[in-house]
Amino acid sequence: MKDRSLVQIALYAAIFAMLGLLPRFDLPFAGGVPITAQSMGAMLAGVMLGAWRGALAIVLLLFVVALGAPLLAGGRGGLGVFFSPSVGFIFGWIAVAFVAGWIMQALRTAPVFPSALVAAVIGGILVMYAFGIAGMSLVGGLAPLDAAKACLIFIPGDTIKAVLVALIAQTVARGMPEALLSRNA
Amino acid sequence: MISLYLPGRTWLHRMPAGWKLLALALVSLAITPVDSVAVMTGLVVAVLALYASLGRAALAQIALLRPLWMLFVILLALHWWSGDVLFGVLVVLRIVAMVLLANAVTMTTRMDAMMDAVEPLLMPLRLFGVAPRRVALAVAMMIRLIPLLFALWEALNESYRARSGRRGGWRLLAPFCIQTLRLSHNTAEALAARGGAPRGGHR
User: Fold this and answer.
1) For residue B141, which of A10, B9, B67, B181 is within the disulfide window of CB 3.0 to 4.6 Å?
2) Domain boundary among B68, B86, B113
3) Could you tell me the pTM of the whole model?
4) Is residue B122 part of a domain?
5) Is there a contact between B12 and B23 (Cβ–Cβ < 8 Å)?
6) Kindly report the CA angle at B116 between B47 and B119, in degrees rounded to 5?
7) CB-nearest partner of A14 from B91, B145, B185
8) Region A124-129: what's the mean pLDDT?
9) B74: pLDDT strictly greater than 50
10) Measured between beta carbons, which residues in chain B are less than 8 angstroms from residue A61?
11) Residue A122 pLDDT exceeds 80
12) Which residue ranges run through the membrane (chain A) (predicted)?
């Protein structure tokens, strides 16, 4: 692994942390659904860095959170978060980044915006909810179907985030193409 | 440094970090098969007593549960709906006990002590040519980058406001990403100029 990759991994872990510490975004069309920007960080890491580096960025973040830094949305952190019902989402972020990055690499010849959108939707919604629902039903003792119902309210927000991630990827591809590592690895 | 660590000199502070982590792992394994509300209530009371023994500042940290109450309500409602409220109560008690217990470890262990305690667990990474010190470097870099990123965001927000009179919000994300990538490029060059990050193999 090159030094540059190491820095990029640290950078995306830091961006992920920062998205959780930012005040909520003023998205006008979200319809009152609670939106934290944080889960965007996982899609972003995958889409920008590719599968392995993206997943490692999330692993690094979770490692620092476990060491005791309050870097998750709302200032949560420490070992406690790994015992809460949202633990499925937390570990799911690793898979989100990996899958999003992998799709981005697989579609490397396609235009940036649509492939980033596909990567963000499949990774950030399908994969994330598969993990999140599994976590809710394991820790919360719910039937998977009930757990799925409890998660539904977040879907509109996550769709918006996937679109944002695709827009960012396209802007970066235009402004600084060599930075889209998932495309030129 | 940002951390959930609570400075103090209690008995739990003095216990080695490795032991605390081991105890936490053992308790979490031991209570998984427990399905008695009475036993679980006893555990929650025991954890609360543990907090009380750590003093007033520790007790105030129980407020960390506040972001979870909405989830507890949803969990109880779903369990009530499927006809087993008692099981719902058990689940909520288990989550409360484990989250509080895990936080007790975090709050009484400094981050560097925690890092030292888990370093032996990173040793297998050497097999893949990753030096544990590289991990430590990545952790340090990430923690240092967070305040830098905030400053960068503030600067972008200020200039957007100067141009438009409004807050930038999500519009800043793309320029922000490009700026941070430039920052990471410079960091990587600075790192290379100083001989690069530690490699795998011997220290």
Assistant:
1) A10
2) B113
3) 0.83
4) no
5) no
6) 110
7) B145
8) 90
9) yes
10) 142
11) yes
12) 6-22, 55-74, 81-104, 116-139, 151-173
Q: Is pLDDT above 70 for A27?
A: no
The parent domain of residue B45 ranges over: 11-113
Q: Does A30 touch chain B (CB under 8 A)?
A: no
| Residues B102 and B24 both lie in one domain | yes
Give the DSSP letter of residue A152: G
Least confident of B6-15, B106-115, B119-128: B119-128
B1: pLDDT strictly greater than 60: no
Does the ipTM exceed 0.85? no
Mean pLDDT of A164-170: 90
List of chain B residues whose C-beta atoms are within 8 Å of the C-beta of residue A6: 134, 137-138, 141, 188, 191, 197
Note whether residue B198 is domain-resident.
no
Residue B17 sits in the same domain as residue B104: yes
> Phi and psi of B194, rounded to 5°?
-100, 15
What's the rounded mean pLDDT across residues A65-70? 85
B17, B120 contact by CB (below 8 A): no
Tokens of A5: 């990759």
| Residues of chain A with C-beta less than 8 angstroms from the C-beta of B182 | 176
Examine the fold and report which residue of B87, B113, B139 is the final residue of a domain before the chain moves on.
B113
Q: Which domains does chain A have, with CATH numbers?
A: 3-27+36-184 (1.10.1760.20)
Alpha-carbon separation of residue A159 from A19, A63, A111, A136, A153 (angstroms): 17, 27, 20, 21, 11
Return the residue in A1, A3, A9 with the most chain B beta carbons within 10 A, the one to mutate for interface testing: A3
Under the banding of pLDDT at 50, 70 and 90, the label for residue B43 is: very high
Q: Mark yes or no for CB contact A172/B170 under 8 Å.
A: no
What's the domain count of chain B? 2
Say yes or no for a CB contact (<8 Å) between A70 and B2. yes
**Same domain as B184, residue B157:** yes
| Cα–Cα distance, B45 to B41 (Å, whole number) | 6
Q: For the residues B162-187, what does the mean pLDDT come to?
A: 85
